[in-house]
C-alpha cells in the first residue's frame, strides 16, 4: 500500500479491506478509495468516508476504527469483536 498525498485530492474516502497474510491468517488493508464497488459498504461520519471492500464486510461487522497517537507513532487501530486469535506482533488476526 502506497498512500501518496496527491491521491487524497481525488479520493472518495478511505478503502478498508482484508487480505490473507501473517501467521494468524488475515491482515487489514487501507488505501484511498477511487470508486465504490458493487456490494461495498459506505460509511460517512464526521466528515470522513470509509468504503469497506465487499469481500471484507462479513469479517468487519461491528468493528470500530480508531486513530491512536503516541509520542513516537501514530496508527489506525481496529477494534474487531470478531477476532478469535492474533499473532504475537499484532499484524494479523483470525476469525473463527
TrEMBL record:
Domain of life: Eukaryota
GO CC annotation: mitochondrion
Location of the Core domain: 14-91
SUPFAM superfamilies, A to Z: HesB-like domain (SSF89360)
Family annotation (Pfam families): Fe-S_biosyn
PROSITE patterns: HESB (PS01152)
Classification via InterPro entries: ATAP (IPR016092), ATAP_core_dom (IPR000361), Fe-S_cluster_asmbl/transfer (IPR050322), FeS_cluster_insertion_CS (IPR017870), HesB-like_dom_sf (IPR035903)
Similarity comment text for this entry: Belongs to the HesB/IscA family.
Protein name: Iron-sulfur cluster assembly 1 homolog, mitochondrial
Source organism (scientific name): Geodia barretti
Amino acid at each position: 500500500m502506497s498512500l501518496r498525498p496527491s491521491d487524497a485530492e481525488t479520493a472518495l474516502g478511505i478503502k478498508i479491506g482484508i487480505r490473507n497474510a501473517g501467521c494468524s491468517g488475515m491482515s487489514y488493508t487501507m488505501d484511498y478509495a477511487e470508486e465504490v464497488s458493487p456490494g461495498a459498504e459506505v460509511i460517512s461520519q464526521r466528515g470522513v468516508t470509509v468504503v469497506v471492500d465487499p469481500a471484507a464486510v462479513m469479517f468487519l461487522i461491528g468493528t470500530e476504527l480508531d486513530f491512536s497517537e503516541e509520542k513516537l507513532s501514530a496508527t489506525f487501530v481496529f477494534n474487531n469483536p470478531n477476532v478469535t486469535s492474533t499473532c504475537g506482533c499484532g499484524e494479523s488476526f483470525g476469525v473463527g
